[in-house]
Amino acid sequence: MTRAWILPMLMVLCGSALAAGLIADGSPGAAAALLLVFVLLAGVNSPLIFPRSIGALEAQRRSAADGRPVVFWRPGCKYCMQLRIRLGRSARQVHWVDIWRDPAGAAAVRAANDGNETVPTVIVADQPHTNPDPAWVRKQLSRSA
Predict the structure, then answer these.
(1) Distance between CA 108 and CA 123 in Å, rounded?
(2) Does one domain contain both 32 and 73?
(3) What's phi and psi for 117, nearest 5 deg?
(4) What is the pTM of this model?
(5) In terms of residue numbers, what domain contains 22?
(6) 31 and 95 share one domain
(7) Where are the transmembrane segments (predicted)?
(8) Which of 35, 37, 70, 105 would be a feasible disulfide site paired with 123, CB 3.0-4.6 Å?
(9) Quick one: DSSP state of residue 90?
(10) Domain count of the fold of the chain
(11) How far is CA 100 from CA 24, 55, 57, 60, in A?
């Protein structure tokens, strides 16, 4: 769990250090703006923008029952973030598995990607798709509804 928060915490710490330097130089306005940018970047790279992750086995069980895609992701992955943002509200309908939290999820991704932990990997009807187009994922969601 702490691994998912390393990048966001580093961003906040770096932003705080840079802001402290700007405050020492007499630029509190610039320091506040810079710190805000770093905090926003940290928020975007944190697990907070993703729906709650579940285990790979539970996600596969639910997907078999409702036909919805399973997305394997990890915090800090810009392609995962892009998929999440472009899915918009429909992202809550997908089953999300954080491979840094779930060893079974990481193993499923490695099995689908020749031993690599390439994310996002989306599984629909037991077929893996690595870094698919968000429009395609939305189409899969509409088929499962």
Answers:
(1) 10
(2) no
(3) -95, 60
(4) 0.71
(5) 2-48
(6) no
(7) 29-50
(8) 70
(9) G
(10) 2
(11) 39, 11, 15, 17
